[in-house]
Fold this protein.
Amino acid sequence: MTTQRSEPALNAGERTMLEGWLDCHRQTLAWKCEGLTDAQLRTASVQPSELSLMGLVRHMAEVERGWFRKVLVGDDPGPIYYTEEDQDGDFHLTEADTWAEAHATWQAEIEIARRHAAGFALDDLSKGKSSFTDEPFSLRWIYTHMIEEYARHNGHADLIRERIDGATGYRPVAED
């Protein structure tokens, strides 16, 4: 599978621009994981860190779920990988954890996020709450935060991928 990244439009409206940048960052993380074995995707960046590409994908599945399901629409299906006892469970991988499962779960959460966001205007406030405030968030704030979250973790993904096989860079995106 080859991930096609698309560049956000240069002259789009605000919502199209925000969604374009979020999708670009989602695609970038997928691209950073391409062509690696499950063992490579479980490889931690550097001791003592447990940060790995598969862990980042699992973490972003949790983040998508948290912001678009729990906060935006007020649905709390519970965590996917972490528990009360293991708050970093998304990063605690075993030999049984697979890319196929992590990727499918992440993609499913992205699709749910898109469906939920489609029902809100940028200024509409969330129906749920986050774990750090009782204040509602606008969809605009959530989109901006998600772009920041992916951008930060894509920086981590760059370094982890370079450690695994030397691959570097931010290749040009597909032309429309």
In short: The chain has one domain: 14-165.
